Amino acid sequence: MLHVTAETVTYETLDDGRIARIWLNRPESHNAQHRTLLVALDEAFARAEADDEVRVVILAARGKNFSAGHDLGSEEALTERRPGPGQHPTFTTHGGTRTGVVEKTYLQEWHFYFENTRRWRDLRKITIASVQGNVISAGLMLMWACDLIVAADNARFSDVVGVRLGMPGVEYYAHPWEFGPRKAKELLLTGDSIDADEAHRLGMVSKVFPLDRLEEDTLAFARRIAQRPTMAALLIKDSVNAATDAMGFDEALRHGFHIHQLGHAHWAATNDNRFPVALPPDVEDWRTAGPTETARRDRP
């Protein structure tokens, strides 16, 4: 077994190198995603892709929750966003000179959130997301980029940025494809969550495993797939991805990203050209306590 540890991501190979497992490694922050984590994750995926021995990549997470989404409030995340001298571009308009917050946000989100996720979706390996606990907003993006999703029986899935922050959803807008159109509208309009069983019924999750067997059963599932001929597996992946792209998936993602940026621009225009650096208090509490506290499915 090869085992390499970074501050935010752990990479290991199993079964004589046929399976690579990448761990999100910020359990104390519920694996919230700051830029350092996303860069490390991209490097880990690239490492697995370049290794000819690897046939299947598992994306998993340390701690009780798979991911609480974008990190909007930790000191590390705030430091990454805090500009140094001369780092805020300025633009001259009919209203005078202003700081280019919207433009800067657009470019950074295109790189860190949109392009990264699309590249991981097309990785030249078969990928499996293994999730537990809360999978919130940008946590969905990491999971949806994978070919297959397996979930612990305590997993819950939601995107709160719509109803809570006035956005249409996260940057990688796969909601209608993963939830179905009407379920996507319901979840985004209410901020509610779904559990692992409902996600399985919708077809978003392939397998539901007991929490205490998630790691073991995911590995067994990955071993079955790793036995398939590599070229055949990649042809299957490419064929299915091409079919969804022919149905408009890729173009819908691009449109959804631009609508997301329009939401940012609206926020900036109505809040002195500033973006929030933290979620509202009730959302912060929810991200810690879990969706059943404030976003129950049976809530009116």
TrEMBL record:
Region entry Disordered, spans: 72-97, 281-300
Protein name: Enoyl-CoA hydratase
InterPro entries named in the record: ClpP/crotonase-like_dom_sf, Enoyl-CoA_hydra/iso
Top-level taxon in the UniProt lineage: Bacteria
GO biological process: fatty acid beta-oxidation
Keyword terms: Lipid metabolism
Pfam families: ECH_1
Transmembrane feature ranges: none
MF annotations from Gene Ontology: catalytic activity
Protein's organism: Mycolicibacillus trivialis
UniProt key word Thylakoid: no
Keyword Lipid metabolism: yes
